[in-house]
Protein backbone atom coordinates (compact mmCIF):
# COMPACT_ATOMS: atom_id res chain seq x y z
CA UNK A 1 0.00 0.00 0.00
CA UNK A 2 1.41 3.38 -1.01
CA UNK A 3 1.25 6.39 1.34
CA UNK A 4 -1.50 7.92 -0.84
CA UNK A 5 -3.49 4.68 -0.73
CA UNK A 6 -3.13 4.56 3.05
CA UNK A 7 -4.55 8.08 3.36
CA UNK A 8 -7.34 7.37 0.87
CA UNK A 9 -8.40 4.29 2.83
CA UNK A 10 -8.28 6.25 6.11
CA UNK A 11 -10.52 8.97 4.67
CA UNK A 12 -12.98 6.59 3.00
CA UNK A 13 -13.28 4.40 6.09
CA UNK A 14 -14.20 7.36 8.29
CA UNK A 15 -17.39 8.09 6.34
CA UNK A 16 -16.85 11.79 6.98
CA UNK A 17 -18.63 14.52 5.07
CA UNK A 18 -15.18 15.82 4.12
CA UNK A 19 -14.66 12.78 1.91
CA UNK A 20 -17.47 13.85 -0.43
CA UNK A 21 -15.87 17.25 -1.00
CA UNK A 22 -12.55 15.63 -1.91
CA UNK A 23 -14.09 13.59 -4.74
CA UNK A 24 -14.49 16.62 -7.01
CA UNK A 25 -10.93 17.95 -6.75
CA UNK A 26 -8.13 17.60 -9.32
CA UNK A 27 -5.71 14.75 -8.52
CA UNK A 28 -2.90 16.73 -6.83
CA UNK A 29 -5.24 18.75 -4.63
CA UNK A 30 -7.22 15.61 -3.79
CA UNK A 31 -4.09 13.77 -2.67
CA UNK A 32 -2.96 16.77 -0.60
CA UNK A 33 -6.25 17.36 1.23
CA UNK A 34 -6.74 13.63 1.79
CA UNK A 35 -3.29 13.46 3.42
CA UNK A 36 -4.15 16.43 5.66
CA UNK A 37 -7.43 14.79 6.62
CA UNK A 38 -5.69 11.46 7.33
CA UNK A 39 -3.25 13.29 9.64
CA UNK A 40 -6.17 14.85 11.53
CA UNK A 41 -7.82 11.45 11.87
CA UNK A 42 -4.60 9.86 13.15
CA UNK A 43 -4.08 12.36 15.96
CA UNK A 44 -7.79 12.51 16.81
CA UNK A 45 -7.89 8.72 17.09
CA UNK A 46 -5.06 8.89 19.61
CA UNK A 47 -7.31 10.81 22.02
CA UNK A 48 -10.50 8.88 21.26
CA UNK A 49 -9.01 5.37 21.36
CA UNK A 50 -6.38 5.58 24.13
CA UNK A 51 -7.98 4.92 27.52
CA UNK A 52 -4.73 5.80 29.33
CA UNK A 53 -3.99 9.56 29.03
CA UNK A 54 -0.26 8.96 29.60
CA UNK A 55 -0.14 6.64 26.58
CA UNK A 56 -2.04 9.21 24.52
CA UNK A 57 0.50 11.89 25.49
CA UNK A 58 3.36 9.65 24.40
CA UNK A 59 1.69 9.03 21.04
CA UNK A 60 0.97 12.72 20.48
CA UNK A 61 4.59 13.53 21.37
CA UNK A 62 5.64 11.01 18.74
CA UNK A 63 3.43 12.73 16.17
CA UNK A 64 4.90 16.11 17.10
CA UNK A 65 8.40 14.76 16.44
CA UNK A 66 7.23 13.11 13.23
CA UNK A 67 5.82 16.42 11.95
CA UNK A 68 9.14 18.10 12.72
CA UNK A 69 10.93 15.34 10.80
CA UNK A 70 8.48 15.82 7.93
CA UNK A 71 9.59 19.43 7.52
CA UNK A 72 13.21 18.29 7.62
CA UNK A 73 12.54 15.89 4.75
CA UNK A 74 12.74 12.75 6.93
CA UNK A 75 9.12 11.59 7.14
CA UNK A 76 8.58 7.96 8.16
CA UNK A 77 4.82 7.43 8.66
CA UNK A 78 2.64 6.80 5.55
CA UNK A 79 0.63 9.96 6.30
CA UNK A 80 3.65 12.25 6.58
CA UNK A 81 5.22 10.63 3.53
CA UNK A 82 2.01 11.40 1.64
CA UNK A 83 2.12 14.99 2.88
CA UNK A 84 5.77 15.55 1.92
CA UNK A 85 5.37 16.50 -1.78
CA UNK A 86 2.57 18.98 -1.01
CA UNK A 87 4.27 21.16 1.60
CA UNK A 88 6.00 23.60 -0.74
CA UNK A 89 3.38 23.77 -3.55
CA UNK A 90 0.61 24.74 -1.12
CA UNK A 91 2.65 26.63 1.47
CA UNK A 92 1.78 24.26 4.33
CA UNK A 93 3.63 25.14 7.55
CA UNK A 94 4.87 23.05 10.45
CA UNK A 95 3.24 25.37 12.99
CA UNK A 96 -0.18 24.61 11.49
CA UNK A 97 0.18 20.87 12.01
CA UNK A 98 1.64 21.34 15.47
CA UNK A 99 -1.38 23.50 16.35
CA UNK A 100 -3.68 20.59 15.53
CA UNK A 101 -1.67 18.34 17.85
CA UNK A 102 -1.91 21.02 20.55
CA UNK A 103 -5.69 20.86 20.19
CA UNK A 104 -5.66 17.12 20.77
CA UNK A 105 -3.56 17.66 23.90
CA UNK A 106 -6.21 20.10 25.14
CA UNK A 107 -8.65 17.17 25.11
CA UNK A 108 -6.33 15.35 27.53
CA UNK A 109 -5.98 18.35 29.81
CA UNK A 110 -9.61 19.45 30.19
CA UNK A 111 -13.13 18.12 29.74
CA UNK A 112 -14.96 21.41 30.44
CA UNK A 113 -14.74 24.96 29.09
CA UNK A 114 -15.72 27.93 31.24
CA UNK A 115 -16.87 30.24 28.45
CA UNK A 116 -17.06 30.79 24.69
CA UNK A 117 -13.58 32.37 24.38
CA UNK A 118 -12.10 29.24 25.96
CA UNK A 119 -14.12 26.92 23.72
CA UNK A 120 -13.34 29.07 20.69
CA UNK A 121 -9.62 28.60 21.32
CA UNK A 122 -10.11 24.83 21.36
CA UNK A 123 -12.22 24.99 18.17
CA UNK A 124 -9.45 26.95 16.44
CA UNK A 125 -6.90 24.24 17.24
CA UNK A 126 -9.29 21.44 16.32
CA UNK A 127 -10.74 22.94 13.14
CA UNK A 128 -9.91 26.59 12.49
CA UNK A 129 -6.32 25.89 11.53
CA UNK A 130 -7.47 22.89 9.48
CA UNK A 131 -9.72 25.27 7.58
CA UNK A 132 -6.69 27.41 6.77
CA UNK A 133 -4.70 24.39 5.57
CA UNK A 134 -7.63 23.39 3.39
CA UNK A 135 -8.00 26.86 1.86
CA UNK A 136 -4.31 26.84 0.94
CA UNK A 137 -4.76 23.53 -0.88
CA UNK A 138 -7.92 24.70 -2.66
CA UNK A 139 -5.93 27.89 -3.55
CA UNK A 140 -7.03 31.50 -3.17
CA UNK A 141 -6.20 35.05 -4.32
CA UNK A 142 -8.03 37.31 -1.86
CA UNK A 143 -6.39 38.10 1.46
CA UNK A 144 -9.66 37.57 3.38
CA UNK A 145 -9.94 33.92 2.36
CA UNK A 146 -7.75 32.49 5.18
CA UNK A 147 -10.00 34.29 7.70
CA UNK A 148 -13.07 32.86 5.91
CA UNK A 149 -11.61 29.36 6.12
CA UNK A 150 -10.71 29.74 9.79
CA UNK A 151 -14.22 30.98 10.61
CA UNK A 152 -15.78 28.17 8.61
CA UNK A 153 -13.66 25.67 10.55
CA UNK A 154 -15.11 27.08 13.79
CA UNK A 155 -18.65 26.73 12.39
CA UNK A 156 -18.07 23.12 11.40
CA UNK A 157 -16.58 22.31 14.79
CA UNK A 158 -19.51 23.89 16.61
CA UNK A 159 -21.84 21.76 14.47
CA UNK A 160 -19.85 18.69 15.51
CA UNK A 161 -20.08 19.70 19.16
CA UNK A 162 -23.87 20.11 18.92
CA UNK A 163 -24.26 16.76 17.14
CA UNK A 164 -21.98 14.90 19.56
CA UNK A 165 -23.18 16.20 22.95
CA UNK A 166 -24.39 12.74 23.98
CA UNK A 167 -21.37 10.85 22.65
CA UNK A 168 -19.00 13.28 24.35
CA UNK A 169 -20.92 13.05 27.63
CA UNK A 170 -20.51 9.29 27.62
CA UNK A 171 -16.76 9.92 27.49
CA UNK A 172 -17.05 12.32 30.41
CA UNK A 173 -16.66 15.44 28.26
CA UNK A 174 -18.91 18.48 27.99
CA UNK A 175 -17.78 21.04 25.42
CA UNK A 176 -20.73 23.39 25.92
CA UNK A 177 -19.44 26.38 27.93
CA UNK A 178 -20.17 26.26 31.66
CA UNK A 179 -21.45 29.84 31.72
CA UNK A 180 -23.96 28.97 28.98
CA UNK A 181 -25.19 26.01 31.05
CA UNK A 182 -25.62 28.29 34.05
CA UNK A 183 -27.52 30.91 32.05
CA UNK A 184 -29.96 28.23 30.85
CA UNK A 185 -30.31 26.46 34.23
CA UNK A 186 -28.78 23.25 32.88
CA UNK A 187 -26.56 21.22 35.21
CA UNK A 188 -23.63 19.14 34.01
CA UNK A 189 -25.33 16.13 35.61
CA UNK A 190 -28.34 16.67 33.32
CA UNK A 191 -26.12 16.22 30.28
CA UNK A 192 -24.06 13.38 31.73
CA UNK A 193 -27.30 11.52 32.62
CA UNK A 194 -29.04 12.29 29.30
CA UNK A 195 -31.86 14.36 30.78
CA UNK A 196 -33.65 16.13 27.93
CA UNK A 197 -35.52 19.14 29.33
CA UNK A 198 -36.95 22.36 27.98
CA UNK A 199 -33.97 24.18 29.51
CA UNK A 200 -31.60 21.85 27.67
CA UNK A 201 -33.37 22.46 24.38
CA UNK A 202 -33.16 26.23 24.98
CA UNK A 203 -29.42 25.80 25.59
CA UNK A 204 -29.06 23.90 22.32
CA UNK A 205 -31.07 26.54 20.46
CA UNK A 206 -28.57 29.10 21.76
CA UNK A 207 -25.62 26.99 20.58
CA UNK A 208 -27.28 26.49 17.19
CA UNK A 209 -27.66 30.26 16.81
CA UNK A 210 -23.96 30.62 17.68
CA UNK A 211 -23.04 28.11 14.98
CA UNK A 212 -25.25 29.90 12.44
CA UNK A 213 -23.55 33.15 13.30
CA UNK A 214 -20.17 31.59 12.55
CA UNK A 215 -21.42 30.33 9.17
CA UNK A 216 -22.68 33.83 8.39
CA UNK A 217 -19.40 35.47 9.42
CA UNK A 218 -17.49 32.99 7.26
CA UNK A 219 -19.57 33.61 4.15
CA UNK A 220 -19.23 37.37 4.59
CA UNK A 221 -15.45 36.94 4.23
CA UNK A 222 -15.52 34.84 1.05
CA UNK A 223 -15.01 37.09 -1.98
CA UNK A 224 -16.31 36.29 -5.44
CA UNK A 225 -12.82 35.85 -6.92
CA UNK A 226 -12.18 32.82 -4.68
CA UNK A 227 -15.67 31.33 -4.63
CA UNK A 228 -15.10 28.67 -7.29
CA UNK A 229 -11.68 27.64 -5.98
CA UNK A 230 -13.14 27.26 -2.48
CA UNK A 231 -16.07 25.10 -3.58
CA UNK A 232 -14.86 22.05 -1.59
CA UNK A 233 -15.10 24.11 1.59
CA UNK A 234 -18.55 25.31 0.55
CA UNK A 235 -19.58 21.68 0.05
CA UNK A 236 -18.56 20.88 3.61
CA UNK A 237 -20.35 24.00 4.82
CA UNK A 238 -23.57 23.05 3.00
CA UNK A 239 -23.49 19.47 4.29
CA UNK A 240 -22.80 20.50 7.88
CA UNK A 241 -25.33 23.35 7.77
CA UNK A 242 -27.99 20.93 6.51
CA UNK A 243 -27.11 18.60 9.39
CA UNK A 244 -27.42 21.49 11.87
CA UNK A 245 -30.90 22.28 10.52
CA UNK A 246 -31.94 18.62 10.77
CA UNK A 247 -30.84 18.45 14.41
CA UNK A 248 -32.84 21.61 15.14
CA UNK A 249 -35.90 20.33 13.29
CA UNK A 250 -35.84 17.13 15.36
CA UNK A 251 -35.72 19.10 18.62
CA UNK A 252 -32.06 18.45 19.49
CA UNK A 253 -32.33 14.78 20.61
CA UNK A 254 -28.53 14.75 20.77
CA UNK A 255 -28.21 13.28 24.27
CA UNK A 256 -29.56 9.92 23.15
CA UNK A 257 -29.20 9.97 19.35
CA UNK A 258 -26.54 10.78 16.79
CA UNK A 259 -28.23 12.41 13.81
CA UNK A 260 -26.52 12.10 10.44
CA UNK A 261 -27.22 12.55 6.75
CA UNK A 262 -27.23 9.61 4.36
CA UNK A 263 -24.22 9.22 2.03
CA UNK A 264 -26.51 9.85 -0.97
CA UNK A 265 -27.82 13.09 0.51
CA UNK A 266 -24.27 14.29 1.23
CA UNK A 267 -23.25 13.47 -2.33
CA UNK A 268 -26.24 15.33 -3.80
CA UNK A 269 -25.52 18.42 -1.67
CA UNK A 270 -21.86 18.35 -2.69
CA UNK A 271 -22.72 17.94 -6.38
CA UNK A 272 -25.15 20.87 -6.30
CA UNK A 273 -22.49 23.13 -4.80
CA UNK A 274 -19.91 22.00 -7.35
CA UNK A 275 -22.21 22.57 -10.32
CA UNK A 276 -23.77 25.79 -9.07
CA UNK A 277 -20.61 27.23 -7.57
CA UNK A 278 -22.24 27.73 -4.17
CA UNK A 279 -23.84 31.09 -5.01
CA UNK A 280 -27.26 30.16 -3.69
CA UNK A 281 -25.89 28.73 -0.47
CA UNK A 282 -23.74 31.81 0.17
CA UNK A 283 -26.73 34.14 -0.37
CA UNK A 284 -28.86 32.03 1.96
CA UNK A 285 -26.29 32.11 4.77
CA UNK A 286 -25.52 35.82 4.37
CA UNK A 287 -29.24 36.57 4.73
CA UNK A 288 -29.53 34.77 8.10
CA UNK A 289 -30.79 36.93 10.96
CA UNK A 290 -28.39 35.83 13.72
CA UNK A 291 -26.14 37.69 16.17
CA UNK A 292 -22.44 38.05 15.44
CA UNK A 293 -20.03 35.99 17.55
Automatic annotation (TrEMBL):
<dbReference type="GO" id="GO:0004311">
    <property type="term" value="F:geranylgeranyl diphosphate synthase activity"/>
</dbReference>
<dbReference type="InterPro" id="IPR019845">
    <property type="entry name" value="Squalene/phytoene_synthase_CS"/>
</dbReference>
<dbReference type="GO" id="GO:0016117">
    <property type="term" value="P:carotenoid biosynthetic process"/>
</dbReference>
<keyword id="KW-0808">Transferase</keyword>
<dbReference type="InterPro" id="IPR044843">
    <property type="entry name" value="Trans_IPPS_bact-type"/>
</dbReference>
<dbReference type="Pfam" id="PF00494">
    <property type="entry name" value="SQS_PSY"/>
</dbReference>
<dbReference type="InterPro" id="IPR008949">
    <property type="entry name" value="Isoprenoid_synthase_dom_sf"/>
</dbReference>
<dbReference type="InterPro" id="IPR002060">
    <property type="entry name" value="Squ/phyt_synthse"/>
</dbReference>
<dbReference type="GO" id="GO:0051996">
    <property type="term" value="F:squalene synthase [NAD(P)H] activity"/>
</dbReference>
<dbReference type="InterPro" id="IPR017828">
    <property type="entry name" value="SQ_synth_HpnD-like"/>
</dbReference>
<protein>
    <submittedName>
        <fullName>Phytoene synthase</fullName>
    </submittedName>
</protein>
<dbReference type="InterPro" id="IPR033904">
    <property type="entry name" value="Trans_IPPS_HH"/>
</dbReference>
